[in-house]
Amino acid sequence: MEISHIATFDASLPDDSVEEEGTIVKPNGTVLGEIIAAELRENGWSISVVEQRGDTGWSFWGKHKGVKFWCLLGYTDPWVMIVVDRRFFLRRWIGGSSAFMTVLHDIDLVMQKVEDISNLVWLSEFEYEAAREDFEAN
Fold first, then answer.
1. Is the dihedral of CA 18, 19, 23, 25 positive or negative?
2. Number of folded domains in the chain?
């Protein structure tokens, strides 16, 4: 079973990217990343600081219900957030995917509460790549 760990969504926040001499020095999404991280923290999650990932987006680490995960947030119209299970291999193998699925479900509930987020859809990697290829072909 493939896990739907890639979220696409729209956000009504203004573009907060910064360019200098035609080069992106701060990508769009600072405010959005902080809003999502703050919502998760308010729900009792352990969340790291939101860090810039080059010129592509923002990321943060988290832990919830014993599951470590990493989130990457980037603007591609629509927004994309990839959530990666970062438990050690043996924990994933022994524990299975149900704990990570619970984390994804809880992230979904938190994101649906954020007023600036709409049209939230979760996709597996296969579904996301197929949709992207279809979009690029048209």
1. negative
2. 1
